[in-house]
Automatic annotation (TrEMBL):
GO terms for molecular function: hydrolase activity. SUPFAM superfamilies: alpha/beta-Hydrolases. PANTHER family: ARYLACETAMIDE DEACETYLASE, CARBOXYLESTERASE 17-RELATED. This is Alpha/beta hydrolase fold-3 domain-containing protein. The active site is at 175. Belongs to the 'GDXG' lipolytic enzyme family. Residues 86-317 form the Alpha/beta hydrolase fold-3 domain. The lineage of its organism: Eukaryota, Viridiplantae, Streptophyta, Embryophyta, Tracheophyta.
Length: 342
């Protein structure tokens, strides 16, 4: 999936659907037209929740906010007792992706079974129609909705909520989804009501950030020098295009949504954050930025655990099927299970 960036001042070929000039394109994934139309290409199929996941996991789609079309897919494993709840945000540069993508359906069903946890996969609003902080707002709204279920279990949701240990909640995501998980945790960690978390009785036990999608105006060594295969899901030009489409208009890559370290460690030090696990891919252009983020967390006094997966690139855990990547995926599953159940 090679990225192609376009200058909106240049007259580019007309789109086949009659919407005029293309002003941004990430090949195979998204086209944005000058008239505002956005075309997302079906490179990964959506699957119904009724496509039976492996490992005896039940899945169902749930409406969180019908006015913004915010919904989630929940995975409940057949395990006894109360289980941790993992709230998950999919990747896709804030611009593409879905909780219904087949790769996430398979990965999260497997995670629910392997880690013995309930997984709530959030389908948030996408940019550029809904630029940041829309996805962060949806993440916060999802946590508020879970709080409501914990306080007042309705018969409609009892089948899954009765399985949840709401005092053991984790925020997680990969790539842009990891950015969202961090942003939601940061919001919750800077907001209290009379000294109590605004999501009480939920208790946020940890964050899992898989290849978190951060950026900045200054390039890191891995961004400049890491050679990516032609089918890499995240090249530097694709990264830049995603940020142009998702950040507030007029912002650059040192906006705090993109670069949480742009203003130094002060704000990070003041946040009340749970334990953090950061999963890094050795061949990812984000590797150095992920390592810098881990160093900043530790310097700010936060509890952080980092794991680096050798010989694999960005999003390998959902997009790669080679026997080598399967070994790394099993390693990741073991690490996630240990972190969730520690």
């Amino acid at each position: 999936m090679t990225a192609v960036s376009f200058d909106p001042r240049i007259n580019l070929p007309m789109g086949k659907n009659g919407h005029g000039v293309i002003i941004e394109e990430i090949e195979g994934l998204i086209r944005v037209y000058k008239d505002g139309h956005v075309e997302r290409l079906p490179i990964i199929p959506n699957v119904s929740c009724f496509v039976t996941p492996a490992h005896g996991v039940a899945a169902q789609d749930l409406t969180i906010d019908k006015f913004t079309n915010l919904w989630a897919r929940i995975y409940v494993p057949s395990c006894p007792g109360k289980l941790p709840l993992l709230v998950y945000f999919h990747g896709g540069g804030f611009c593409v992706g879905s909780a219904a993508w087949s790769c996430y359906h398979e990965f999260l069903a497997n995670l629910a079974s392997r880690a013995a946890c309930v997984v709530l996969s959030i389908n948030y609003r996408l940019a550029p129609e809904n630029r940041l902080p829309a996805a962060y707002d949806d993440g916060t709204r999802a946590l508020t909705w879970v709080k409501q279920q914990a306080l007042n279990v309705s018969p409609e949701h009892k089948w899954w909520s009765s399985q949840c240990n709401f005092s053991s909640v984790f925020l997680a995501g990969d790539s842009a989804g990891a950015n969202i998980a961090y942003a939601v945790a940061a919001r919750l960690g800077s907001t209290t009501s009379n000294g109590e978390s605004i999501i009480s009785p939920l208790s946020l036990r940890g964050m899992i950030l898989i290849q978190p999608f951060f950026g900045g105006e200054a390039r890191t060594s891995s961004e400049k020098n890491m050679i990516q295969p032609v089918n890499s899901p995240l090249t530097l030009s694709a990264s830049d295009a995603y940020w142009r489409l998702s950040l507030p208009l007029g912002s650059n890559r040192d906006h705090p949504f993109c670069n949480p370290l742009a203003s130094g460690f002060g704000k990070l030090r003041d946040l009340r954050l749970p334990s953090v696990m950061v999963c890094i891919s050795e061949m990812d252009i984000l590797k150095d930025r992920n390592l810098e983020f881990c160093t900043a967390l530790a310097s700010a006094g936060k509890k952080v655990e980092k794991v680096t997966y050798k010989g694999v690139g960005h999003a390998f855990q959902i997009l790669e099927n080679s026997s080598f990547c399967q070994i790394r995926i099993q390693e990741m599953m073991s690490h996630l299970k240990a972190f969730i159940n520690q």
